[in-house]
Amino acid sequence: MASNLTPAFAYTVVYVKDVAKSISFYSKAFGYSVRRLDESRRWGELETGQTTIAFTPIHQYETDGRTGTVKPPESSCERQQVEVCFDYRDVDVAYKRAVESGAVPVSQPEMKEWGQKVGYVRDLDGIVIRMGSFVQPPKQD
Description:
The protein is 21% helix and 33% strand. The protein is α/β, with parallel strands linked by helices. It has a single domain (11-62, 79-133), classed as 2,3-Dihydroxybiphenyl 1,2-Dioxygenase, domain 1. Strand 2 and strand 3 (44-47) form a beta hairpin.
């Protein structure tokens, strides 16, 4: 039984250069509907199920002074400390759509030893997106 102190995982916030562009890109490239883009264009959300993926500007007064500034990677050899992962029934089709929509290809989908097909792209801000198949349960003997 969950206690009153057990939280629900509500948001993953992605810090981006342009919230409106990122919302549009993620909607087109990864197939999500836009839930919200506020009038200031400083907050946006996608319809992603139980946990929301949200976007906010890299630099903002409310957080920079309190929690520190966001430091994007300085080159394509570096990456963020977080990776956004989406699962699809057909990873090849999803990967192709993402690249055709402006995602930067990193590695095409390939079958991994743990039974999942996985490919990687980067978004408009260089954030790594892992696109994978749903993990298949182990086969019973």
